[in-house]
Amino acid sequence: xxxxxxxxxxxxxxxxxxxxxxxxxxxxxxxxxxxxxxxxxxxxxxxxxxxxxxxxxxxxxxxxxxxxxxxxxxxxxxxxxxxxxxxxxxxxxxxxxxxxxxxxxxxxxxxxxxxxxxxxxxxxxxxxxxxxxxxxxxxxxxxxxxxxxxxxxxxxxxxxxxxxxxxxxxxxxxxxxxxxxxxxxxxxxxxxxxxxxxxxxxxxxxxxxxxxxxxxxxxxxxxxxxxxxxxxxxxxxxxxxxxxxxxxxxxxxxxxxxxxxxxxxxxxxxxxxxxxxxx
Length: 279
Description:
This protein is of the alpha/beta class. The chain is built from ten helices and eleven strands.
């Protein structure tokens, strides 16, 4: 049976380390979270972020805007928060209502407060190895691997998915760790054969239980980024866990794997932003 990479435990460890750092160094950080509309899933995520802030000892501001909020109104609020020296991180909860231009909103956030790591300047810094905020889910995956003693240097890593939020930054982070990286997507030929080469397979394709045991090599490490609700109401990932777990050396469960790490790394980015400003 595979070693289960426990994202709950590792994220809890990171949050405890941040709590101790905030207390020891007297860091006063504040995260501003903007939610437009009342999408139930977004509301849960926003509550979890507020709870995480309180847990590590930093403050948060929540702006719950009506669904009819205009582009100009949202940009004006972001502009105010960019200028507020007491705010160290700005997060706009996605997805936004269809009438809003998501790209323009992300670009409007100051790179110094872009704790989601989505701004082009943040992405550019990652691509050339300069200091900047890194998208939270890929950063969390690196922490999962490091804290589970998974060797990345020289290993073959296959990433299935090329999104701006996970796939692309994940590839750059794995290159930083000296892995040999292949990025697969909907146009990749012979996907199964490519995945079978992987020492580390990162599944971020957005299809429930897509990857079964025929996609993985014996003894490989599998990171499952997907999260879905199956027909019986249970949560599942992009990987068919029951079919894969006996074949691989380590695997993340869903839930309890990658998910908790995203908020932990968001907290890390916010604390880091406040620390930089206070230097």
